Fold this protein.
Amino acid sequence: MTGPAWGSRFCLVLAAITIVIANYPRHRNRHLREQLVNSHKVTRNITQLQEITINLPPLRIPHLRHHRVTDWDPYFENANGQGINGSQNVALHLGATAYLDCRVAMLSGKKVMWLRQNTDWASLLTLGNTTHISDSRYSVSFQYPNNWRLAISGVRREDHGVYVCQVNTHPPRMLVTNVTILAPDIRIIDEAKHELRDRYYKTGSGIELTCVVRPSCPDSRVPYPVWRKNSEMLPDHVNVYHINGSNEDLVTRLYIERAKKTDSGEYTCSVSQFSTTAVHIHVLNGEKQAAVHDQWNAARTNCCAAFTELCVFASLFLYTWQSYSL
């Protein structure tokens, strides 16, 4: 290649370098201006984001129980999903259908059973969905999502005690339910409002008995009591009246206008088939009647006299002791 050709190329390269060098400060300044503008935009965006964050409501993190994270065994919980530690107490109304709940979380294929426990024995009531007791009043049902509910129909007084919901882990996990029975208070009283167990009448006299039922709690609904004689329906000549009692008491009155010897027997006042009280009526005549009344009145007189003497003795003792102390 000849000298003039090299010379022309060299001049072109030199000119290009000169142009680049001459334009470099201007391009550099333009790049810096773009970076400055971008930084202002980023700063403005961060400020706006901070303002939005300040106006947002606080973040709520759900409460996690420690054992849910670290312990994967079954555990008991209440209707609100809170863990149950210890026993629980349940009051059941006499004659009603009762439900005992056992909510088991994290069951993982384990079996749930209900037992009734006493100091000397324990009986298996249910296992899973199967009932293992001959008493048809007991049943079990699964309520979604985790409730193994034990039902007891027609609650009786003897149903009180300790019921255990148990999961077959090792060792077994148990939820203890202490059951008490709420029964109405039922009494048979006479005209003077004295509670009766035995009563003597003369033939031809009137018999009047009053049955008073007080519910176990103010909101419970109790049916009217039913009168029976010797566990059978009352004779036609025996009248029963329903009376408005004080507060929430239910009052029924039995009345016989002219008593006969055949009216003697056991008279019961019952609320359904679960709560009953009884009085024995004796209809007598002649000297036997007088003798019975004399003995009964003498016993009452002697009892009252003995009580009076005891009160007097106690008063004298207290008076003497106070005088001695002074």
User: Anything to note?
Assistant: The mean pLDDT is 79. Residues 3-55 form the longest helix (53 residues). The chain is about 30% helix and 35% strand. The helical segments are 3-55, 66-70, 286-325.
